[in-house]
Structures are given as structure tokens and as C-alpha cells.
Write the C-alpha cells for this entry.
Amino acid sequence: MLNKQFPWLNTDGIAIGCFGVQNEGWLDPWAFLTAFRQKALSLGVLYLNAELVGFDKAKRIWADGTIENQLDKALVLSAEDNKIYPMDAALIINAAGPWAGEVAKMAGIGVAGEYPVALPVEPR
């Protein structure tokens, strides 16, 4: 039945299932995040207790002669020794939730120059 109602759902290997239309499903977000963290740790991920305090930028010169400032490193303040460390990054994703506007400002977004429009996200 499920594969008829949801044709995109792969039901191979599923012996039984149900679909509820009211008050169905529950998730413990803390347990969910803890499980993700534990799996990441088992795969060798290093978690740091640190706060983002800024970014370093590097000039990139493209083949067409265009010069561009790109984020090169995230600067983090370690909670363990109160020192600032540069974190190399090939790609930086702003996933700061309600603080995304503040992080964008640290990256130069909404300040002036290449990206003059601010990210309109603020904590309540």
C-alpha cells in the first residue's frame, strides 16, 4: 500500500509498514544529534569546543585576470586555552541558525564591497 500512495518510496526489503494520518511519529532531537555525533567520532571527526571570531581572506586571481577575495580560514577561539586558531577550509558553510546574520557580517557580507546586502537573520 505504501508504495502505491508514495511511488517515490523504495519499499524493497521492507516486510511491514504503516502510515498514520494523525499524531504519528516522534523524534528525540537530542538523542538524534548525539547519535550523529557518536558516529562522526567513530569515523575520526574531531570536535572542538570553540567560538567563531572571524575569517581570514585570500586573494584569488583567476585565468581571466579577475581578482577575488575568498574566505580562506575560519578563526576560532578555543574554550580550552583561550587562544585563537586558524582552521583551514576549502568550503565554508554558514549553518549558524539565528546567528547566521552575525556570521555573514564576519565574512564581509552586508558590510560593503562584493556583497553589500546583509543577511537579514538575527537571534530573537
